[in-house]
Specification:
alpha/beta; Rossmann fold; Dihydrodipicolinate Reductase, domain 2; 2 domains; six-stranded parallel sheet
């Protein structure tokens, strides 16, 4: 597969690019400000910044290239615009708040637990350079739990990506925690998403669950 990788030298992109090549994909690195020829690519992958992601994905979709988005910070109006463009082009755009398989399971478990325990709060911790807060993972978790869940954001040096969901009832506390210790954790999810990207319906699909077993 020929893949355009937006943010190839970033923290995730630098880990992802060699692993994509190891998996047999041809990678076209794309850095900030570059406008590569996207025609002929099978997919575009974006791990950049919230202020750049929409334009990058619009460029890919406009060229008829399905897109895989790992950058968080997209607003509802951004998703609506990308959905309309992807539908117009009859291609898929998969937006994933977190590619770590353990994080997806954490969100599933939290949604299940929220049906039985009456109160919950989320604490998400990321590196100080992460621009958006709350994180996309925390917002997706809260939405899966019913939406009205307080989120506390921590930004400190040395962190990668960590989240705790605390659920409480009378006399008990359940804590569900996921820690991303290395950005290598995102690679299996990205590879699986690329394998299944063209199987998705036209338009925006949100979440890695769309390409994982139920």
């Amino acid at each position: 597969m020929k893949v355009a990788l937006f943010g190839a030298s970033g923290k995730v992109g630098a880990v992802l690019a060699p692993r994509l090549r190891d998996a047999g994909h041809h990678v076209t690195p794309v850095e900030r400000g570059e406008e590569p020829e996207l025609a002929g690519h099978d997919a575009a992958v974006d791990f950049t910044r919230p202020d750049a992601v929409r334009a990058n994905v619009e460029r890919a979709l406009g060229a008829g290239v399905p897109a895989l988005v790992g950058t968080t910070g997209l607003r509802e109006d951004d998703l609506a615009a990308l959905d309309a463009l992807a539908r117009e082009q009859a291609i898929a755009c998969l937006v994933v708040p977190n590619f770590a398989l353990g994080a997806v399971l954490m969100m599933r478990f939290a949604a299940e637990a929220a049906r039985s325990l009456p109160r919950a709060e989320i604490v998400e911790l990321h590196n100080e350079r992460k621009v958006d807060a709350p994180s996309g993972t925390a917002k997706a978790t809260a939405a899966a739990m019913g939406g009205e869940v307080p989120i506390h954001s921590v930004r400190l040096p040395g962190l990668v990506a960590h989240q705790e969901v605390l659920l409480a009832g009378d006399g008990e506390l359940l804590t569900i925690r996921h820690d991303t210790l290395s950005r290598e954790a995102f690679v299996p999810g990205v590879l699986r998403a690329l394998d299944h990207l063209r199987d998705l319906p036209p338009g925006v699909t949100v979440g890695l669950d769309a390409v994982l077993p139920a």
